[in-house]
Amino acid sequence: MPRRHPNLTRREAQIMEILHRRRRATVEEIRSELPDAPSPSSVRKLLDIMIDRRLLGREYDGPRFVYFPAAKPEEASRSALRQLVRTFFNNSPGSAAAALLDMAGGPLSDDEYERLAALLKRARETEGRR
Q1: pTM of the full structure
Q2: CA-CA distances (angstroms) from residue 128 to 12, 63, 94, 120?
């Protein structure tokens, strides 16, 4: 069962976004991408708090620590997507999927269409068994 994390603060969410995109980063690399970046010691303190909350990992790489997300990218993306669907689509995956298709702006590739069709078929079959 994937680990559930409490809601992130704005700054924690910014840091997680940076680390998921970069995979690994030092304090200075994180600071360089943070808007209105706080001091290095403030960033380190926040990273320590995030490690205590099991959101991040850290390893020593030469003269400095390198930080990375504790959750696998696919776990993090599913968690973020669940939060997005809950917040903006009244907990309706169908509404979220429809919005994504509306904003695609062009036709789906054959592979995308087949994948979506298979997922919809599986969802319908799962629904029928309840």
Answers
A1: 0.59
A2: 40, 58, 17, 12
Distance of CA 105 to the CA centre of its chain: 24
Q: Report whether 64 contacts 27 (CB < 8 A).
A: yes
3-class state of residue 2 by DSSP: coil
Distance CA 56, CA 126 (A): 35
Q: Which of 32, 4, 1 is nearest to 18 (CA)?
A: 32
Q: At 28, which amino acid appears? A: E
Interatomic CA distance for residues 42 and 84, integer angstroms = 29
Q: Which residue is associated with the tokens 């669907």?
A: 85
pLDDT tens-digit series, residues 96-116: 888 888 887 788 889 988 998
| Three-state secondary structure call for residue 32 | helix
Burial of residue 30 (CB within 10 Å: 0-12, 13-18, 19+) is buried
